Amino acid sequence: MSATAAPPESQAGRVWARFRRHRLALAGAFVVALLMASALFAPAFAPQDPTLLDTALRFRPPFAEWAHPLGTDELGRDTLSRLLYGGRVSLTVGLVAMVTTVATGALIGITAGFLGGWIDMLLMRFVDTMLCFPQVFLLLVVAAFVPPTLLSISLIIGLSSWMEVSRIVRAEILHLKEQDFVAAARALGASRRRIMFRELLPNAAAPILVAATLKVASAVLMESYISYLGYGVQPPLASWGNMLTNAQGYFDTVPWLAILPGAAITLTVMGFNFLGDGLRDALDPRLRMDP
Amino acid sequence: MIGFVAWRLLQAIPLLIGVSLIGFGLMHLAPGGPLAVYTLNPTIQVQDIERIKVIFGLDQPIYVQYVKWASGLFSGNWGYTFFGGRPVLDVILERVPATLLLMGSALSVAIVLGLSIGVLGAVKRYSVFDVLATTGALFALSFPTFWFGLMAIFVFAIQLRWLPSGGMWELGDEGNILALLEHLVLPTLVLALVITATWSRYSRSAFLEVMQQDFMRTARAKGVPPAARLLRHAFPNAAKPLIALLGVELPFLFSGALVTETIFGWPGMGRLFVDALNMKEYPVLMGMMMFTAIFVVLGNLLADIAIAAIDPRVRLR
Amino acid sequence: MAEPLLKVSGLEVHFPIRSAFLRRRVGTVRAVDGVDLEVARGETLALVGESGCGKTTTGKAILRLIDSTAGSIRFGGEEIAHHGTSALAPFRRRMQIVFQDPYASLNPRMTVGGILAAPFDIHRIGHAGDRAERISALLRTVGLPADAARRYPHEFSGGQRQRIGIARALALEPELIIGDEPVSALDVSIQAQVINLMKRLQAERGLAYIMISHNLAVVSHVADRVAVMYLGRVVETAPREQLFFHARHPYTQALLSAVPEPVPGRSRSRQVLQGDVPSPAKPPSGCHFHPRCPIAQPRCAEETPRSRIIAPNHAVACHMVSA
């Protein structure tokens, strides 16, 4: 494997060199950093409270006045403020869902791959079965019956998308567990748990990191869609998805209300997708797909 | 070959049982359970709920309910809707043609476009076209389908007024094929975008891999013209991973169709699903989950059999 | 003679061959097919044979890294062939292994310090405070600088990595170390250094070694006694000089005649074996070696030869050899 065969020069340096060549990935990293910063410092950047109503100032167009750089919505709320706070919500859900996905997927993948036998068989048939359900169906059915909170939404998204991660981790573990360093650990008397989590898991870090990055993108997409349908983040809490729902009613007259949150979703998803693609090329040349 | 098909069919059975267990479990584990629509309704009395439970068999032990429900699944008795009391299978089946039409047209567009882009990219690797196409595919994959749909409606229906913004027919114009096609254009394009991107990426890498094989070099050395090399030598070999992709991508196609249908008011299964969700019509939701999952299992089965038909080596494994 | 440190008798390791269809058992690979071995304290037994003869599997079965199908493994007088994880724990401290491939045997994601701390962590030896001291002592013992602990395996050369592997094996102060081709992946110039290190450690600590090797030149340097394996069985066991100069089994003789560097003083008459090594899934009947044996008789195809002592410490499993 690549990690073991690496020559004695700095591994991190080689990875960085490969990543830097990937211009879209750099752009993705930049966008992700920008989004994180704007979500983190939303209170500092936002012109006003995102829930503040001002019915005298409804439907202000963007770039018209300093007080509302991106205009106002149907209730006179400041669009930029709502976008910034909505970004907080989207990224929080995206990250918590990703952690759920990765934790579940890695745990199931490593258990199946390491223990093998009928446990592996059962877990992998479970994965196959879960993959038969379209994710949006699975997500919406559960979301419709669970009271929507940020945590419940994140968990539902995370728990409906871990299957690919478990397959990736299992494949990696199957390859790793035949290596001598695992036999060495067993000869020392290491417990199964120690071998699984101290010896094997860190070696599967690269594909997990790539999957994690791509999963943030898909989680943000899922959150915005179920919020758009009304089963996700509930008003007055702003999310890019529910901003779109409201905007749809004024589509023909004030299109920017729909364009802006959609553009924010697209930018975020692209940022994480490009970053993940670049990481895949940089960390694991075997998985390369694009020039 | 018959043995292979039988073996594959046999393997699908545990998958179908698993699918039914998860679908059933999900509905019963959900807070409020299958009767959420009634228990949450303050005008319905406790004794009424008890009566409803008996009518729907919900007072029986859980495994009895499952066995009854699962055997009904196979005999075509998928239960009745809470509102209106219509057979669930009928309700679903009447929506299937619209969804299949949308999925079929989007898939055809996506396969033709995606395959052409992918093959061209593979043949002219690292050309301007290839770089633009692979980059474009990455962009397209990041586009939220529902927002793209809204934008398409805004541009083509509201601003340009070229195409209708939603639905399948105009009122009183049912059966007009031209009108249907007109309504089909936007949802097809929107649904096809992401699939085209996926197909162009996969067909590019599938062809790149095939073209590096020894038999391709041999064909070239023998003087087989490029077009024939591509069609007769590369294509049958690259087709395998692409057929597999067709099976694997089915759930995503359903997800995409659901999203597209909600945006365009397309009267298919996706629309039905969201309506059922809003009314907490659990028999319909459960029926639809089962329907799509069974569809996916069978789709993958067909893909596997098609691959085995092309490549005899697969059968021997 | 007192009870040896390790006594293996009748050891068998069989692997099932399963079909893709329903995973039915369709055959058996007899990787180890009735092996008897003894190792005394402080001695080096070399286990030699061609690749695929089951020598590595034998080593791993002794360490209980692979479960044996049958037979007995007595270590320090105690039967350990069927010990569970917890009963095995004290024996993990008493026997260790050094692997062939110094690239695959060290976890690439752990620092050398982490790799060497693992034995102490697992057996709860010492406390966090004296860990660093123990690790640098180990590194000193194998001739590596103390600052190696902070670095990762890929920053070291093959020979240095093998020293790290030896340090790990030494950490628990074992009585027996199994070296699974410990130098065959190294450059020839480095091989001698590592072998000398292992010999020095043996002298200082009274270690016993089982050296698994296909390289008779290496074996001639380190072994006190040599056991020759063919298709899962030991065909000849003898003290080093006895084996190199008075080998009796026709397979051993063929093996010795194929060595490119002649052992000084041995007359060279090259015997070339006919045919390939048969598959351990379908071993020949009787004596496994009979289809390739230059002196085989009809009896050899029917009857499995038993190991017989023909001289002090010299045992041969061949119908055609008499004392």
Automatic annotation (TrEMBL), chain A:
Gene3D superfamilies: MetI-like
Topology of this chain in the membrane: Multi-pass membrane protein
Compartments it resides in: Cell membrane
Residues spanning the membrane: 24-46, 89-115, 254-276
Pfam families, per database record: BPD_transp_1 (PF00528), OppC_N (PF12911)
PANTHER family: D,D-DIPEPTIDE TRANSPORT SYSTEM PERMEASE PROTEIN DDPC-RELATED, OLIGOPEPTIDE TRANSPORT SYSTEM PERMEASE PROTEIN APPC
Recorded family membership: Belongs to the binding-protein-dependent transport system permease family.
Name of the molecule in the record: ABC transporter permease
Protein's organism: Roseomonas alba
UniProtKB/TrEMBL annotation, chain B:
Protein topology in the membrane: Multi-pass membrane protein
Main localisation: membrane
Matching InterPro entries: BPD_transp_1_N, MetI-like, MetI-like_sf
Transmembrane domains' residue ranges: 12-30, 100-123, 135-157, 177-199, 242-264, 284-310
Localization per record: Cell membrane
Assigned keywords, A-Z: Cell membrane, Membrane, Transmembrane, Transmembrane helix, Transport
Domain ABC transmembrane type-1: 96-303
PANTHER family according to UniProt: DIPEPTIDE TRANSPORT SYSTEM PERMEASE PROTEIN DPPB-RELATED (PTHR43163)
Family designation: Belongs to the binding-protein-dependent transport system permease family.
Entry protein name: ABC transporter permease
Origin species: Roseomonas alba
From TrEMBL, chain C:
Locations listed in the record: Cell inner membrane
Family annotation (Gene3D superfamilies): P-loop containing nucleotide triphosphate hydrolases (3.40.50.300)
Keywords: ATP-binding, Nucleotide-binding, Transport
Keyword Nucleotide-binding: yes
Keyword Nucleotide-binding (UniProt): yes
Region (Disordered): 262-286
CDD domains, A to Z: ABC_NikE_OppD_transporters
Pfam name, any one: oligo_HPY
Alphabetical list of InterPro entries matching this protein: AAA+_ATPase, ABC_transp_ATP-bind, ABC_transporter-like_ATP-bd, ABC_transporter-like_CS, Oligopep_ABC_C, P-loop_NTPase
Membrane topology, as annotated: Peripheral membrane protein
Molecular function in Gene Ontology: ATP binding
Residue intervals of the ABC transporter domain: 17-256
Family the entry assigns: Belongs to the ABC transporter superfamily.
The protein's name in its UniProt record: ATP-binding cassette domain-containing protein
Origin species: Roseomonas alba
